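User: quick one, sequence for these tokens?
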């Protein structure tokens, strides 16, 4: 017994300085395992006399309790230490460079729209909005496109009943703005427009941006329009491009022009994209026709208007050759923007 008590006491001393799980477990087995010192001691109790049994039994129980309280305290201490070192190892280093980019920057068409808005709002143009479903008056009549006029063929229209339709351009927003405000007007609008068309360069839904400036008197002229648009084209495509105004026709402007930019794919020397002309058409513009002012009840005013397809500008700016890729939600394309 004396010997066993000494062995137990030695083990308890070792237990006090233990600092890892494995050593703790082997000491537990040594002291209170199936063949441990305490277990052995208890089984030897049967061999001693009744008086001694009581005394030694009490001593063994005290040793057992001492072992247990020491063991659980150590166990907790070691587990806490292990947890701390584990947390230290798994700590996330937030200063590390992050390589996977799944944060969206917005659809390229909307990025272009925002660029356009930034430019014109910076020049004090107000941003206006209007409905997708329009009536015949705002989409056609007021813009000098009467019923049965061949100019309606320029725009393949989706019709509803009762002469309602999906707007074929954003120009009706100009009419609504003039109906609701007195000159001076300095506005742009952007939004979805709809035509019955579907191929490499046409989609049934696309986006336009239009602008309108109207002032009392006859002083607004082509020079103002030309300056604003030349600066605009250089803002979008860079100072290096050349801009050309080519006379054209729109029912709502007179005189009218289309604006071309030197082809950014061949730098103006002629290639397949620009059909070997060196130029690409990007917008329409002109001096507002007097019949438009008449339709909204304006008198003694002058003004200019311009309109452009946002998809087209986006394709030219970033070299996208199929319009349809804008609407196919293919992340491999969208992620490049
Ligand atoms: N609304 C015209 C279109 O869709 C564009 C335009 C607007 C042209 C204003 C001239 C002036 O074709």
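Assistant:
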């Amino acid at each position: 017994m004396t010997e066993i008590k000494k062995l137990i006491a030695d083990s308890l001393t070792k237990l006090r300085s233990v600092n890892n799980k494995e050593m703790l477990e082997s000491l537990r087995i040594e002291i209170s395992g199936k063949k441990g010192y305490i277990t052995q001691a208890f089984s030897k109790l049967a061999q001693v006399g009744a008086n001694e049994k009581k005394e030694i039994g009490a001593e063994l129980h005290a040793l057992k309790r001492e072992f247990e309280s020491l063991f659980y305290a150590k166990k907790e201490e070691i587990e806490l230490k292990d947890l701390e070192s584990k947390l230290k190892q798994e700590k996330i280093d937030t200063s590390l460079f992050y390589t996977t980019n799944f944060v969206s920057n917005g659809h390229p068409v909307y990025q272009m729209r925002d660029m356009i808005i930034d430019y014109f709002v910076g020049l004090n143009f107000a941003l206006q909005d209007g409905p997708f479903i329009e009536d015949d008056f705002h989409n056609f009549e007021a813009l000098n496109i009467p019923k049965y006029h061949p100019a309606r063929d320029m725009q393949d229209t989706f019709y509803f009943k009762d002469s309602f339709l999906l707007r074929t351009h954003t120009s009706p927003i100009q009419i609504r703005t003039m109906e609701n405000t007195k000159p001076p007007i300095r506005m742009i609008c952007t939004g979805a427009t709809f035509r019955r068309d579907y191929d490499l360069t046409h989609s049934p839904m696309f986006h336009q941006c239009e602008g309108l400036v109207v002032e009392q008197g006859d002083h607004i002229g082509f020079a103002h329009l030309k300056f604003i648009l030349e600066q605009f084209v250089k803002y979008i495509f860079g100072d290096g491009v050349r801009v050309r105004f080519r006379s054209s026709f729109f029912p709502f402007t007179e005189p009218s022009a289309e604006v071309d930019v030197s082809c950014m794919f061949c730098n103006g020397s002629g290639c397949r994209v620009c059909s070997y002309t060196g130029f690409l058409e990007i917008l329409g513009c002109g001096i507002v026709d007097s019949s438009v002012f008449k339709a909204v009840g304006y008198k003694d005013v002058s003004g200019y208007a311009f309109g452009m397809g946002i998809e087209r500008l986006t394709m030219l700016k970033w070299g996208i050759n199929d319009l349809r890729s804008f609407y196919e939600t293919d992340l491999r394309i969208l992620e490049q923007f």
